[in-house]
Write a structure and sequence with these properties.
By secondary structure, the protein is of the alpha/beta class. Helix content is 29%, strand content 24%. It has a 5-stranded parallel β-sheet, with helices on one face. Strand 10, helix 6 and strand 11 form a beta-alpha-beta unit. Helix 3 packs antiparallel against helix 4. It starts with 6 loop residues before the first strand and ends in a 10-residue tail after the last helix.
Length: 465
């Protein structure tokens, strides 16, 4: 059998999320580039992740505003929900964005597109739809996909993952969500606020288990007031009969059957590295399937790089965008190699209430033996918190006990995703609570709760200094 000759490029990029701009850089340098993509352009964020999810969640946020309107002397009610419009608007915008990204490369004669499942067949050689391509420089940015846990009976049950849940064309009546991390919680907020009866089944003792312990405990308590939440649950099996889904679980209280018409699996994501046959080109992965890279984002095979979810340092779009800057610099030798600086990587949970966080949790500081002090402040103790009716939110600051450098910051409450940004920026440049205490904050505005949390950290110097 004759083996076809591989077409040669200078750079191959696998995936069209954050890594696709590597192809742009290659073209700008006068190099030849190829892009390999098996799905819609834009990656997870554009098609099934942060952008469509936040658009859907805004509908839930609007609903909550209407539900609470009477607290502010406004009598309002919802006449009806146009589910088709809610979902089709988001799907249309996501699909349009993907098509715009793809068309930009279709018109670029310096970049060749290969649409299909690409796999390595030899050293730095891939095959897509029967055609082979090779390059000395390759970027692995193939993203991730939802995990489907091995629940007995799952193969015979219709279920959703986050991919389908963000494009689901009918509103469930009774939704069972397996998983209490940020994906499951954001989707519980979306569906629940719009009238679906939601049950969240979580393995651990709290929702949002990676958050600071005070945040996860208080968030769990608040979320249980709106939705049914079952904690410390082991899922034993699932079945489907006449449109009814039965989830069998075991809790410390005994065995229980959860009934619903729709099942959503929100139990994490796995890297798409297993779809690339990386062993054929010698790239190492770890036990979780994540591509192993050095501090510069280069794999064990010189010239092959990786970023984003296949690396898995943080499964966040802004992390992948951040890594792109370093990958671009290091791949194209724009100076001495630069190790990726991940310090103060923030994240947010767009639920109700919102959560924003950056840096160490208190439990991490305790486990690592770091001397620390805490500052906390409640939204309810500020004029803005009272004005908007947020009486449950709070800010928690973790600072070094000796230097008062900010080690971590955690916010639960209105606009937490926005308020955390200033703290992340401050951490990036090593600001202390002393510095923050010298700021002048608008009164009465949301950031004042952060300012007062800073001033509550023991030993912080008050103005004038």
């Amino acid at each position: 059998m004759t083996v076809s000759t591989a077409r040669e490029f200078d750079v191959i990029v696998i995936g069209t999320g954050s890594g696709v701009s590597i192809a742009d850089s290659a073209a700008a340098e006068g190099l030849t580039a190829a892009i390999v993509e098996s799905g819609p352009f834009g990656g997870t964020c554009v098609n099934w992740g942060c952008i469509p999810s936040k658009q859907l969640i805004h509908s839930a946020d609007v609903m909550e505003v209407i539900d609470k309107a009477a607290d502010f002397g406004i009598n309002a009610r919802v006449e009806s929900i146009d589910w088709d419009k809610i979902v089709s608007r988001v799907v249309s915008e996501a699909d349009d964005a993907a098509n715009i990204i793809e068309s930009r490369y279709i018109r670029n004669d310096k970049v060749i597109l290969y649409k299909g499942e690409g796999r390595f067949v030899d050293h730095k050689t891939m095959e897509i739809n029967g055609e082979r391509i090779t390059a000395p420089m390759i970027m692995l940015a193939a993203g991730s996909r939802p995990v489907v846990p091995p629940i007995p009976g799952i193969d015979d049950v219709p279920y959703l993952t986050s991919d389908e849940a963000l494009r689901y064309d009918k509103q469930p009546t009774q939704l069972i969500i397996v998983g209490g991390g940020f994906v499951g919680i954001e989707l519980a907020h979306f569906y629940g606020a719009l009238g679906t009866d939601v049950t969240v089944v979580q393995r651990g003792p709290t929702l949002l288990p990676i958050e600071d312990e005070d945040v996860s405990r208080r968030f769990t308590d608040l979320f249980r007031r709106k939705h049914r939440v079952i904690l410390d649950a082991e899922t034993r099996s699932v079945s489907h009969n006449n449109g009814e889904i039965s989830l069998e679980i075991t809790t410390p209280s005994g065995d229980e059957t959860i009934i619903g018409d729709t099942l959503l699996l929100a139990t994490g994501r796995r890297p798409n590295s297993d779809r690339l046959d990386l062993d054929k080109t010698g790239v190492e992965t770890n036990a979780r399937g994540l591509v192993v890279v050095d501090e510069y984002l280069e794999t064990n095979v010189p010239g092959i790089w990786a970023l984003g979810d296949v690396v898995g340092r943080y499964q966040l779009k802004h992390n992948a965008n951040w890594e792109w800057w370093y990958a671009d610099h290091n791949m194209f030798e724009r100076g001495p190699k630069e190790a990726v600086n991940y310090h103060a990587m923030p994240h947010a949970v767009f639920a109700s209430p919102q959560v924003g966080a950056v840096g160490m949790t208190e439990q991490q500081a305790r486990e690592q033996g770091v001397p620390y002090v805490l500052g906390t402040y409640e939204y309810a103790w500020t004029a803005h918190g009272v004005a908007i009716g947020d009486l449950t939110g709070f800010v928690k600051i973790i600072a070094h006990a000796e230097t008062r450098e900010i080690l971590g910051a955690h916010i639960m409450g209105s606009d937490a995703a926005t308020l955390i940004q200033d703290l992340a920026n401050g951490m990036r440049i090593g600001l202390t609570t002393d510095v923050y205490s010298q700021g002048i904050y608008v009164h009465p505005a949301a950031p004042e709760v952060v300012y007062r949390a800073m001033r509550s950290v023991p030993g912080t110097k008050m103005p004038p200094v």
